[in-house]
C-alpha cells in the first residue's frame, strides 16, 4: 500500500510545483508592462457655471438679433421719412413751376408792314390769355421797338405770315429760338429775323419770358 501512495504524493507535488512555477513566470511577464491608471477628466468650471455660460451666449445672440431688427426698422423708417420729404419738395417745386408757367404763358404780338408810318397801329397785341392785362403796356412797347427795326422787303405777295419765337431775358437781351411758321418767302423770313436781332436789347421785362412775333405784310 505504501508504493502507490508515494507515487501519488510525488505526482501531486510535481503538479503543484509546476503550477507555482507557471504563476511565477506569468507574474514576471506582467511586471514588464506596468499598468497605466485610467485618465481623470477634471472640469475646471462647474456644471452650473457651464449652464450659465450657455444661457448667457444665447441671451447675447438674441440681443444682437433684436438690435439688428430694431436698427433695420429705424433705418427703414428714416428712409420712408426721407422719401416723404423728397416727395414734398418735388411737389412744391412742381407747383412753383406750374405757377411760373401760368404766369409766363407765351404771348403773341403782331406786326403789320402796311401803314408802317402809323406807329399806333390798332393791330397791336394778340395774346393767348386775352387782352386787358397789366403786361399790355410792355408788349405794346416792345412791339414798337421791333416794328421800328423792321425793314419790309419789296415784294408783291400780300398773304404772307411768319411767326418767330424769341426769349426775352431779364436784362432785355433777345434770344431767337426758331421760326415757328415760315411765310414761304425766304426774303420775308430773313427780314423778320433781322428786325428782332436789331431790336435787341429790348426794355427789360418783369421776368424772363417767351414771346411769339407774328409778321404780316
Distance between the termini: 178 Å
- What coarse outline follows from CA principal-axis ratios? rod-shaped
Biggest sheet descriptor? 5 strands, mixed
Mean pLDDT: 76
CATH architecture of the largest domain: 2-Layer Sandwich
**Widest β-sheet, arrangement of strands:** 2-1-5-3-4
Our Rg estimate from Cα atoms comes to 57 Å
Number of domains: 2
Kindly state the percentage of residues in helix: 40-55%
CATH topology title of the largest domain: Fusion Protein Consisting Of Minor Coat Protein, Glycine Rich Linker, Tola, And A His Tag, Chain: A, Domain 2
How would you explain this protein's 3D organization?
This protein is α+β, with helices and mostly antiparallel strands and 217 residues long. The chain has two domains: 51-103; 107-216, 2-Layer Sandwich (Fusion Protein Consisting Of Minor Coat Protein, Glycine Rich Linker, Tola, And A His Tag, Chain: A, Domain 2), CATH 3.30.1150. The chain is built from four helices and five strands, in the order H-H-E-E-H-E-E-H-E. The chain has a five-stranded mixed beta sheet, covered by helices on one side. It is rod-shaped.
Amino acid at each position: 500500500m505504501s508504493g502507490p501512495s508515494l507515487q501519488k504524493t510525488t505526482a501531486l507535488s510535481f503538479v503543484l510545483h509546476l503550477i507555482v512555477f507557471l504563476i511565477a513566470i506569468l507574474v514576471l511577464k506582467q511586471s514588464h508592462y506596468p499598468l497605466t491608471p485610467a485618465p481623470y477628466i477634471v472640469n475646471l468650471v462647474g456644471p452650473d457655471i457651464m449652464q450659465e455660460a450657455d444661457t448667457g451666449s444665447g441671451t447675447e445672440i438674441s440681443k444682437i438679433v433684436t438690435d439688428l431688427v430694431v436698427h433695420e426698422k429705424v433705418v427703414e423708417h428714416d428712409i420712408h421719412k426721407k422719401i416723404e420729404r423728397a416727395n414734398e419738395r418735388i411737389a412744391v417745386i412742381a407747383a412753383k413751376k406750374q405757377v411760373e408757367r401760368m404766369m409766363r404763358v407765351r404771348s403773341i404780338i403782331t406786326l403789320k408792314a402796311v401803314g408802317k408810318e402809323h406807329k399806333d397801329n390798332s393791330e397791336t397785341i394778340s395774346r393767348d390769355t386775352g387782352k386787358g392785362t397789366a403786361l399790355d403796356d410792355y408788349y405794346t412797347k416792345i412791339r414798337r421797338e421791333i416794328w421800328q427795326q423792321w425793314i419790309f422787303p419789296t415784294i408783291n405777295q400780300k398773304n404772307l405770315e411768319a411767326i418767330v419765337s424769341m426769349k426775352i431775358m431779364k436784362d432785355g437781351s433777345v434770344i431767337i429760338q426758331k421760326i415757328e411758321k415760315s411765310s414761304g418767302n425766304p426774303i420775308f423770313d430773313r427780314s423778320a429775323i433781322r428786325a428782332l436781332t436789331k431790336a435787341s436789347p429790348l426794355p427789360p421785362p418783369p421776368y424772363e419770358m417767351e414771346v411769339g412775333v407774328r409778321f404780316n405784310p
